[in-house]
Specification:
Rossmann fold; 7-stranded parallel sheet; globular; single chain; 13 helices; about 350 residues; alpha/beta; binds nicotinamide-adenine-dinucleotide; binds thymidine-5'-diphosphate; 14 strands
């Protein structure tokens, strides 16, 4: 792994991964390949472009454009593709699933075809959401997939295609399934940056349903280290879960945000629930721990670090919240009934 193509590298996790990898490995050449959708932002990589100019390049393109992917991997002599590119917000997948299917299904297929033709290693970034609602216990990698949103189903499709290319063509693949990531540069449609930035502006936090859904909020750099561990030490054809291994109710996450910012509970607005909302995800992370990786942050510590980053970096999120985001916010939350207010 000396020459990486990072698809979706201008998004939240991909940009953190790009920075982390270039900082960690002096001999690494890295190309970010990204369509620059509303979620892909060159600001996320401006320090990378400055600090690693000789070892970093950016190509704008769609992963479903097989010819451009093939030309990019060939001209940069890529040996490994790490696929972060996806449409990633569950709520948007409920409003409009089309781009989710195009990118995760057709796009991943195009990348796999390029990897097959050129003999490249392929690592696919997946999610705990492919396991669906986990009523009890924790998901292990061999569990059946039971996705319940268009987003989760599009991701599960990509996982299955990736594994099929390993079995059928012997393609050297690995997959990681991450829990909810939080940290710098996450688009403020996702719950933690949405709630932090709303709270900073004294705008209500729209908590879906009773707020007792369980999520494992992991710090993004822990996830990046996990992906790196699997790239170096993972067994080909295998899947690895990555998370803290502990989940908490959304309301506890909200309490941490409000208390860290010194804001009142009256900002909590309980609103009409998300359709098909998965009440709980839970990951067993023993398999990746056996590679020598471990998370460095608890969910609580990850939330606190994330609050502090958004409080200190409004240069990054204010322009986003003033743009396309306003239209989305009105569509997603404008008609939602408020069912109660925090006391
Ligand atoms: P993000 O929405 O912040 O970034 C996605 C990036 O992909 C953007 O830069 C976007 O421009 C790019 N992209 C979208 N469609 C593309 C296409 N057709 N061709 C090329 N580029 C395209 O998402 P994220 O939160 O950084 O997630 C990255 C990956 O990690 C996704 O595959 C997601 O499913 C997975 N994941 C995310 C989380 C999480 O909590 N955010 C958890 C587990 C797994
Ligand atoms: P989200 O960040 O959308 O991630 P995911 O649904 O992929 O886990 O949401 C995390 C949790 O927060 C999930 O249980 C839904 C809830 N949530 C709210 O309560 N209100 C909101 O406005 C959003 C966006 C999410």
């Amino acid at each position: 792994m000396k020459r990486l193509l990072v698809t979706g590298g201008a998004g939240f996790i991909g940009s953190n991964f790009t920075r982390y990898m270039l900082q960690t490995y002096d001999d690494l050449q890295l190309v970010v390949y990204d369509k620059l959708t509303y979620a892909g932002r060159l600001e996320n990589l401006q320090d990378v472009a400055r600090d690693f100019a000789g070892r970093y390049a950016f190509v704008q393109g769609d992963i479903a454009d097989q010819a451009l992917v093939a030309q990019t991997t060939r001209s940069h002599a890529i040996d490994t593709i790490v696929n972060f590119a996806a449409e990633t917000h569950v709520d948007r997948s409920i409003l409009d699933p089309d781009a989710f299917i195009r990118t995760s299904c057709l796009g991943t297929y195009a990348l796999l075809e390029v990897a097959r033709a050129q003999g490249l290693r392929f690592h696919h970034i997946s999610t705990d959401e492919v396991y669906g609602f986990v009523r009890e216990g924790a998901s292990v990698e061999a569990d059946p997939l039971a996705p319940r949103s268009p987003y989760a189903a599009s991701k599960a499709s990509a996982d299955l295609l990736t594994l099929a290319y390993h079995v059928t063509y012997g393609l050297p693949v690995t997959i990681t399934r991450g829990a909810n990531n939080i940290g710098p540069y996450q688009y403020p449609e996702k719950v933690v940056p949405l709630f932090v930035t709303n709270a900073l502006d004294n705008v209500p936090l729209p908590v879906y349903g009773d707020g007792m859904q369980m999520r494992d909020y992991q710090y993004v750099i822990d996830h990046c280290e996990g992906v790196d561990a699997v790239l170096r030490k993972g067994q080909l054809g295998e899947v690895y879960n990555i998370g803290t291994g502990h989940e908490l109710p959304n309301l506890e996450m909200v309490e941490i945000i409000l208390s860290r910012l010194g804001k009142p509970r009256s900002l909590i607005h309980f609103v009409e629930d998300r359709a098909g909302h998965d009440r709980r995800y839970s990951l067993n992370v023993d398999k990746i721990r056996a590679l020598g990786w471990q998370p460095r942050h608890t969910c609580q510590a990850a939330i606190a670090l994330t609050v502090d980053w958004y409080a200190a970096n409004d240069w990054w999120w204010r322009p986003i919240k003033a743009g396309e985001f306003r239209e989305y916010y009105a569509r997603q939350y404008g008609q939602r009934a408020v069912l109660g207010v925090g006391q």
